[in-house]
TrEMBL record:
Gene3D superfamilies linked: 3.30.70.1730, 3.90.105.20
Gene name tied to this protein: LOC110748965
Name of the featured protein: 60S acidic ribosomal protein P0
Subunit text: P0 forms a pentameric complex by interaction with dimers of P1 and P2.
Signal peptide: none
Summary of the function given for this chain in its UniProt record: Ribosomal protein P0 is the functional equivalent of E.coli protein L10.
Length: 319
């Protein structure tokens, strides 16, 4: 029987594995692993098997290995991972689509009971209805001020009750009641906290952005750059058309206020001297539209009316 590896040997093996994964994978999901059991974690490993690897470990050991590997390779982008290793977290190295891997991880959440002292991650509401408990159990409901009635020999909750609010600790009475009702209000699994992509670090919400969302954000950014460039008179590709248009307006205004002129300003000056020319320029457009409208009216008039029975040449009462 082979001897068990020592702690030092385990650390060396872990360090080697982590460094190899850093070299082989450029995409990493940093996940929180609070309240995740070993069987659940094993199922997640199986579900991600193929293009992803889940690595758990002590934060101090992971930080140390990352720093040493960054120094050896000279690739300091690995150091962006160090500040993210806080709390009970793990690393998912992947070569697949980050969004698809994130969605796959979310599938492995399992229900969990409300344990005493646990901070509630969500609001817990007890629904109305028959509980199946005998009347001797009403004391639990009375302690928690839950309105009940006896119906066919069992306790029935009359209205929905907000039993626990998000962020509150679960008390012994609440935990006991939920256990009696068979309610498992919480669900736990690996939760993606941060995404690392070849040195870039960003929130997992970015993975949910669509092309339309990106276009809207890009347009907003271009608008802000344009506004800033116009405000400080700094030429940019986005601001150039507006600058030329504003410059043309300024030159035109100077031309109208002075004797200076240029071809584009002549027509405007003519309109200002004689407004009837502007009306004459608009009139042909309206005149061209009038015959078309009249033609449509004539077509409607020329449509033959529906023939009556008398026009057909016989009557309903003819033999």
């Amino acid at each position: 029987m082979a001897p068990k590896p020592s702690k030092a040997e385990k650390k060396i093996a872990y360090d080697s594995k982590l460094c190899q994964l850093l070299d082989d994978y450029g995409q990493i999901l940093i996940v929180a692993a609070d309240n995740v059991g070993s069987n659940q974690l094993q199922n997640i490993r199986k579900g991600l098997r193929g293009d992803s690897i889940v690595l758990m470990g002590k934060n101090t050991m992971m930080k140390r290995s990352i720093r040493i590997h960054a120094e050896k390779t000279g690739n300091n982008v690995y150091l962006n991972l160090v500040p993210l290793l806080v709390g009970n977290v793990g690393l998912i190295f992947t070569k697949g689509d980050l969004k698809e891997v994130s969605e796959e991880v979310a599938k492995y959440k399992v229900g969990a009971p409300a344990r005493v002292g646990l901070v509630a991650p969500i609001d817990v509401v007890v629904p109305p209805g028959n509980t199946g408990l005998d009347p001797s159990q009403t004391s639990f409901f009375q302690v928690l001020n839950i309105p009940t009635k006896i119906n066919k020999g069992t306790v029935e909750i009359i209205t929905p009750v907000e039993l626990i609010k998000k962020g509150d600790k679960v008390g012994s009475s609440e935990a006991a009641l939920l256990a009696k009702l068979g309610i498992r209000p919480f669900s736990y699994g690996l939760v993606v906290q941060t995404v690392y992509d070849n040195g870039s670090v960003f929130s997992p919400e970015v993975l949910d952005l669509t092309e339309d969302d990106l276009m809207v954000k890009f347009a907003l950014g271009v608008s802000m750059v344009t506004s800033l460039a116009l405000a400080i008179a700094y030429p940019t590709l986005a601001a150039a058309p507006h600058m030329f248009l504003n410059a043309y307006k300024n030159v035109l205004a100077v031309s109208l206020a002075t004797e200076y002129t240029f071809p584009q300003a002549e027509k405007v000056k003519e309109y200002l001297k004689d407004p009837s020319k502007f009306a004459a320029a608009v009139a042909p457009v309206a005149a061209d539209a009038a015959p078309a409208a009249a033609a449509k009216v004539e077509e409607k008039k020329e449509e033959p009316a529906e023939e009556s029975d008398e026009d057909i040449g016989f009557s309903l009462f003819d033999d």
